[in-house]
Structure to design on (221 residues):
């Protein structure tokens, strides 16, 4: 299982026909937030693969949209979904895409009145609901139920690759979420390395990786 994983920084050359110079055996596009939805849509379409993502704090608000009879709806009325066409929004959900099971928590710590921002307490509540959904999904599938492969977030766990300026604090609750879900990976954006090397971190048995920019990742199924 091979994926193009992107977050926060648009790679201009990939928003052209040069995207076809990427490996031909890619199975999936994964977005960790703060990228134009048109960019995600282009990448998935050009590579002819599915796309799963969570929104970042600079992305439009996607809450309240539903699908009914092939139409996008909001507040009971047809509405154009602002997200990437065909993309799967994993925020607050457990989704299976491209052979992997994702648990998603988008957004950042609240620092102004913009969308996709949460206080530590709000994100903790969202994380608890996510864990319950993962457990229910596994229970419903019975003895052979799958675990979460990837916890996809925009912000990192607190004190695990975050920064000390308030907008770039990580979320405390992600440590308990990792402990509960035990994913193989936590992939996040939000923290720009500015050219510095960013080593992976390990929390329990979970590898935490900053995916700002783009990279090709392989996942064992």
């Amino acid at each position: 299982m091979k994926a193009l994983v992107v977050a926060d920084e648009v790679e201009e050359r990939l928003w052209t026909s040069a995207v076809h110079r990427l490996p031909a055996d890619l199975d999936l596009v994964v977005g960790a937030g703060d990228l134009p939805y048109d960019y995600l849509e282009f990448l998935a379409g050009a590579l002819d693969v599915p796309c799963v993502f969570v929104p970042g704090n600079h992305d439009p608000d996607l809450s309240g949209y539903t699908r009914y009879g092939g139409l996008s709806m909001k507040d009971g009325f047809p509405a154009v979904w602002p997200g990437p066409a065909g993309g799967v929004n994993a925020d607050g959900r457990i989704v299976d895409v491209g052979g992997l099971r994702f648990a998603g928590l988008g957004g950042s710590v609240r620092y102004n009145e913009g969308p996709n921002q949460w206080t530590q307490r709000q994100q903790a509540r969202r994380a608890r609901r996510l864990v319950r959904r993962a457990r229910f999904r596994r229970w419903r599938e019975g003895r052979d139920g799958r675990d979460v492969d990837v916890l996809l977030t925009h912000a990192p766990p607190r004190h695990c690759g975050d920064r000390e300026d308030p907008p770039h604090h990580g979320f405390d609750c992600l440590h308990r979420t990792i402990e509960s879900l035990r994913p193989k990976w936590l992939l996040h954006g939000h923290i720009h390395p500015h050219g510095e090397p960013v080593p992976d971190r390990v929390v329990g048995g979970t590898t935490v990786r900053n995916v700002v920019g783009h990279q090709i990742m392989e996942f064992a199924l």
